[in-house]
Specification:
The complex is a heterodimer of chains A (about 750) and B (about 425). Chain A is α+β, with helices and mostly antiparallel strands. Chain A is about 50% helix and about 15% strand. Chain A has four domains: about 1-30 and about 150-175; about 30-140, Jelly Rolls; about 175-600, no CATH class; about 635-720, Sandwich (Immunoglobulin-like). Chain A is built from 27 helices and 18 strands. The two termini of chain A are about 25 Å apart. The chains are: A alpha+beta (about 750), B mainly alpha (about 425).
């Protein structure tokens, strides 16, 4: 490192200077560009065939990030403010506008200007609104543009430095050409998989709006600083909040949420995130498969096929299934850990390290997608039972128990609150998991559907989505089967035979389980297993595991063929090995190009610059809603109090509400607050006796309800606090991580010490 | 590789060929489009007639006019018995259709194997012959796109006829068996699609008399024709005497529906009702020309050369420039027969069937060379091209065609 710094100090100095300048510019105050008060707005209201609208005079906008703030009185109709332009260069002004729904008082929307716009204006349409509720409109130029620039520069500089560092290492011979090629091919596979997002728009899959809202909700909740880790996200459901973070791990969504805080649009933050996950998947898969096989070419083949598998790409673009593709990122680690625990020499000292990928991988999956975690754990338990001889070896069993223990302790901050939440309330989730799922499986023709069309249907062949392991992975299986069947006599001790056999068997088994021919509905009726079986919602989810196992087989194919061909004629061996690898690579490339081109061509384009434009009710199935909640009845509203209960000084920031209440009646009165009534809210009130409290019963559409005793007058503050158990669980996780890191570092230093003494 | 290994490898490839070229039958439902609904109705008609104590051997005029399937007016229902029996046994209509078409596919592959092994001894050459036959875009078009069960059966029976003839001509023993198969196959073609009975009879007669100079073999075809008398009489009565106005049988000019030269070479997509050769078959044809051009191939057997010549003539007949209008003016029987054919493209189908044999020969000759490129790489490319094309055609159909009686799946199914 020192050498690198001294060699490239001029370049590094310039890079540092540029970043410092950008960072300093980030602290500029917001600049008011335009404002209009109620009178000015009333004067410039127009009516035409499109309805009522206010339109400002023209003004100029310089490149930067802008924030349009609209404040209004209580209103029944809808408003639609946005920033527009009469003429500009292509997409110089990027703003979608957003609906201000009934009873909403304030909205902030973003606008991005990438080229000078001389004829910008603010427009606000009135939809089913006859009054003049708008009190003020302001447009600010923020410093977020500089923040974004600083981040991009930092990223670009890191990339350049990395490339220079790689070049230096290659020239010195510290990194082999083979390693360089591995890095290059992995990078190309990431770019190939990312092709549909190499545009200034994105495509929205079925779950897209939900996951984008998770990012936006997380950002808003982090911004207001009420909770960390976040359990109930504000912003959702007309500001009522949604406990999505309690049930659906959003640890990895902190990255796009931070990008949002920097100033990137929601679309760009998400696209950055997708690129990062694709890169992470390629690297993790390669590292994991390399650790298993010890063969670079094999690991490269396995990881590239895993990265480019149709089901993997489908999860990104067709479904925007963030949880599932994040889960797929960690799956290779799990299989690597499991493989190492079962194949490494248990007498060796470094056997204790074999379980580390298992713990990290499982933790990553739990934090990403519970259903994938469930499938993985069930598969691991079954595999452990099948290999019971090895499982019940003293050392192996000890390591497995330790792995399970550490996994549970590290993730205690997530699963203990999750179980607590499940135990204290009833959610819509329980209605959804009892559905029949067998008809959601694929058909035999689906297994033969090897051209990954974009599609839009999940269950039939017509317009079907690419729910398949893909032609390349099939080619791997056929290649393995052909060579194995053509083998002369029994295996001559090929050390990779077992891995190939089990990888293929498990892959095909999962593939069969993903079809509609496996009696899922019958399974659902078996007590105990039923809930586990139907919780996966679609049998096709098992293609995640099928893709993993077949990729694992693909990783072993190269070393397996090498061992196998040792008994063949030299020419035949060369032809079969080279031919197999080339054919599989060509099929993978062709299938992926077909897939990504299909997506680029067929999926609609969405240019989402203004997060508010999405609304905030895309809960898909609404699994985490309280049982009985009806989203269609929800809207923005002020506190709804019983007659005789007075309230004033109402202030709502995220999930925290401050207000003054006064009950002049002789009985206890109730008030419903615009918060979803999850358990865990706390109420602080003035006074010591007979103070307001949160009731067990909830108000309309699940609103939080508070009771105010007779004669009470004072300020109250309601906010989400969670339970003491949450803090305990967080403490357990924190201590475990610190201890684990401490033990790991101590071992490492001891080892280094021994080596240096030796 | 020893013989046993090659056998195992071929086994895997045959399974793949069948799976890839019959992919739509694994849907478990019948796709919309083509004549599939008409054939389902035809099965229902037969089932109901059987329940009523009679057999409706030919489709009713109501059925053919309702589905504009006049071309199938002379298709005998005898071949539909397996599907109808399945339905009577309680199998669903669509599932029985799928099973029936899968059976046709499997028997077609077996028949193609039988035909190719009459011409070639080498396992791999036979495999390539079967591959070309099964993955031929015209076959996939007939079986799944047009969903014409009558002509699918012709694809199944034609190799039995050609294979029988070849075995008899090449003197491969058991003459009675081969002769019986040939006779039955020809009779079967009449029952499957009477138009094809005429076309194949004429082509085979011309070929056997002019090229092979083997008039004795015509007796076998005649025996087949005798077995098909119910169909022949039914059709001949129409061709000679006319009538059948209720059927509204076509009598228009067919010349305009013929192929243009470019349409022969299409691969992944094609103009409606005009599938091309496909990448593999076209490539094998070019390979054959190349090998002749550079004088690199062995001597082609006279029978195969004869088939190539017939293929050429059939190709000419399928062109839109072929004077079918003049043929139709030769007299009312000609007008009616040509009208029933609906398109000269029908001759291209027969040309495709026969071309698979010289195509397999070309691959067999290429594999005789010693270097890796010719022995392994080029055949492998052909294999991949044939399978990829067939799969693309099948996958596109299953992707784009709705199941019968279903509405499009919502974009937001979950």
């Amino acid at each position: 490192m020192r050498e690198f710094i001294s060699r490239h100090r001029l370049l590094l100095g310039i890079e540092l200077l540029v970043v410092i300048i950008c960072v300093l510019l980030c602290f500029q105050p917001e600049e008011l560009i335009f404002s209009a008060d109620a009178d000015a707005i009333a004067q410039q209201r127009h009516t035409d065939e499109n309805g009522n609208y206010y339109r400002s005079d023209l003004f100029t906008l310089r490149p930067g990030v802008y924030r349009l703030r609209l404040q209004c009185k209580d209103h029944e109709g809808m408003l639609y403010p946005t920033v527009g332009t009469t003429e500009s260069s292509f997409q110089a002004l990027r703003c979608n506008g957003a609906f201000v729904r009934a009873h909403r008082r304030e909205i902030d929307i973003e606008a991005y200007v990438v080229d000078r716009v001389d004829s910008a204006y603010v427009i606000c349409s009135y939809i089913e609104e006859t009054g003049q509720p708008v009190e003020r409109i302001e447009l600010y130029r923020t410093s977020e543009g500089w923040r974004m620039l600083a981040f991009i520069l930092l990223l670009a500089e890191t990339g350049i430095n990395l490339l220079i560092w790689l070049r230096d290492k290659l020239l010195k011979g510290t990194i082999s050409i083979e390693q360089g090629m591995v890095a290059g091919i992995l990078a190309l596979s990431v770019l190939l998989a990312y092709l549909p997002y190499c545009a200034d728009y994105m495509s929205m899959g079925a779950d897209g709006a939900f996951h984008l809202l998770r990012i936006e909700g997380l950002k808003e909740t982090l911004l207001h600083g009420g909770q960390f880790p976040v359990r109930v996200q504000e912003y959702w459901l007309y500001g009522h909040g949604y406990a999505v973070s309690s049930f659906y791990g959003d640890l990895f969504l902190i990255f796009p949420a931070l990008l949002r805080l920097l100033g990137f649009s929601l679309m760009d933050a998400y696209k950055f995130f997708v690129l990062a996950v694709l890169a992470g998947t390629a690297v993790i898969a390669y590292r994991s498969f390399y650790r298993c096989t010890g063969n670079r070419c094999g690991a490269l083949m396995g990881s590239v096929l895993y990265e480019l598998a149709p089901y993997h790409i489908y999860n990104f673009y067709n479904r925007n299934a963030v949880g599932e593709y994040l889960g797929m990122m960690f799956l290779p680690m799990v299989i690597c850990g499991f493989y190492c625990v079962y194949t490494q020499d248990e007498k060796k000292q470094d056997y204790v390290r074999a379980k580390v990928p298992l713990i990290v991988g499982l933790s990553g999956i739990l934090q990403s997608h519970i259903l994938t975690c469930e499938m993985t754990v069930v598969a691991l338990v079954l595999a452990a039972l099948v290999m019971w001889r090895k499982t019940f070896r003293k050392e192996t069993l000890r390591e497995l128990v330790k792995a399970a223990g550490v996994f549970l302790l590290v993730n205690a901050w997530f699963w203990i609150p999750l179980l607590k939440m499940l135990s204290v309330d009833k959610y819509a989730l329980s209605d959804i998991v009892t559905q029949d799922i067998q008809h959601m499986g694929t058909r035999v023709a689906g297994i033969l559907q090897m051209y990954p069309y974009a599609g839009a249907g999940q269950t039939e062949m017509y317009n079907c989505e690419p729910i398949q392991i893909g032609a390349a992975l099939w080619a791997v299986l056929v290649c393995y089967l052909a060579v194995r069947l053509c083998r002369r006599g029994k295996s001559a001790g090929n050390p990779y035979d077992k891995a190939m056999k089990w990888g293929t068997l498990l892959g095909v088994l999962c593939l069969l389980l993903s079809t509609r021919y496996f009696p899922w509905d019958m399974m659902a009726r078996i007590p105990g297993i039923g809930l586990l079986a139907t919780a996966i919602q679609f049998p096709t989810r098992l293609l995640t595991i099928a893709t993993l196992f077949t990729s694992f087989t693909a990783a072993f194919l190269v070393p397996w063929l090498k061992e196998e061909s040792a008994h063949w004629e030299m020419q035949t061996a060369g032809i079969v090995r080279a031919g197999s690898v080339i054919a599989i690579a060509v099929i993978a490339l062709w299938a992926t190009l077909f897939h990504v081109n299909e997506i680029s061509y067929d999926h609609g384009s969405l240019r989402l610059y203004t997060a508010e434009n999405m609304g905030n009710v895309s809960v898909v199935n609404g699994e985490y809603l309280l049982q009985g909640m009806d989203v269609s009845q929800m809207q923005y509203h002020d506190p709804a109090a019983d007659e005789g209960l007075l309230w004033e000084d109402y202030d709502k920031r995220g999930l925290t509400i401050n207000l003054h209440v006064e009950n002049r009646s002789s009985q206890e009165l109730y008030m419903e607050l615009p918060l979803t009534g999850y358990r865990g809210y706390g109420l602080d009130a003035d006074g010591e006796t007979a103070v307001p409290y949160i009731t067990e019963n909830r108000g309309a559409h699940g609103d939080l309800r508070i009771a105010v005793p007779s004669g009470y007058a004072g300020n109250i503050r309601v906010s989400y606090k969670g339970f003491i158990l949450f803090r305990v669980a967080e403490g357990i996780s924190g201590v475990t991580v610190l201890l684990w890191l401490g033990i790991g570092l101590t071992r490492r230093y001891r080892k280094v010490g021994k080596v240096s003494r030796g | 590789m020893d013989n046993k290994q090659i056998k195992k490898l071929c086994m895997i490839l045959y399974i793949l060929i069948f799976a890839f070229t019959s992919a739509p039958v694994f849907c478990g439902y019948v796709m919309e489009g083509g004549d599939s609904v008409m054939w389902l109705e035809r099965m229902r008609e037969m089932r109901e007639s059987l329940a009523g104590g009679s057999v409706l051997w030919f489709p009713s005029p109501e059925l053919t006019t309702a589905f504009a399937g006049q071309g199938a007016a002379f298709d005998n229902g005898i071949w539909l018995f397996p599907a109808v029996v399945l339905q009577i046994l309680g199998v669903g209509e669509q599932m029985s259709y799928c099973i029936f078409t899968a059976m046709i596919g499997a028997v077609t592959m077996g028949a193609a194997y039988w035909m190719m092994s009459a011409f070639f001894e080498n396992r791999i050459t036979v495999l390539y012959g079967v591959l070309f036959y099964m993955s031929c875009p015209y076959r996939i078009y007939i079986c799944f796109d047009k969903a014409d069960l009558g002509q699918s059966l012709v694809w199944m029976l034609m190799p039995l006829l050609v294979g029988g003839l070849a075995r008899l001509r090449l003197g491969q023993g058991r003459k009675v068996v081969w002769g019986s198969i040939l006779t039955l196959a020809y009779a079967g073609i009449w029952y499957a699609d009477a138009r094809w009975g005429v076309i194949i009879g004429v082509c085979a007669g011309v070929y056997l008399l002019l090229w092979e100079r083997w008039p004795a073999s015509l007796l076998l075809l005649a025996a087949g024709a005798v077995l098909s008398m119910p169909v022949i009489i039914y059709m001949a009565r129409y061709l000679i005497k006319g009538g059948m106005q209720v059927w509204n049988l076509p009598m228009g000019s067919i010349m305009g529906n013929g192929y243009t030269i470019g349409a022969f070479m299409t691969n992944w997509t094609y103009r409606p009702d005009m599938p091309g050769l496909g990448l593999a078959l076209a490539g094998a044809f070019l390979l054959m020309i190349w090998m002749y051009w550079i004088g690199d191939g062995g001597k082609m057997h006279k029978t195969i050369r004869g088939l190539l010549a017939v293929t050429g003539l059939l190709t000419l007949a399928s062109l839109k420039y072929f004077p079918w209008d003049y043929v139709q003016r030769l007299g009312m029987p000609f007008l009616r027969l040509a009208g029933l054919l609906e398109t000269p493209g029908i001759f291209w189908m027969l040309a495709n069937m026969l071309l698979t044999i010289p195509a397999a020969w070309a691959i067999g000759e290429a594999r005789k060379k010693q270097d890796v490129l010719w022995r392994w790489a080029i055949p492998a490319v052909f294999l991949i091209a044939a399978l990829a094309t067939a799969l693309y055609l099948c996958n596109s159909l299953t992707y784009m065609r709705l199941p019968i009686g279903q509405q499009p799946v919502s974009d937001l199914a979950y």
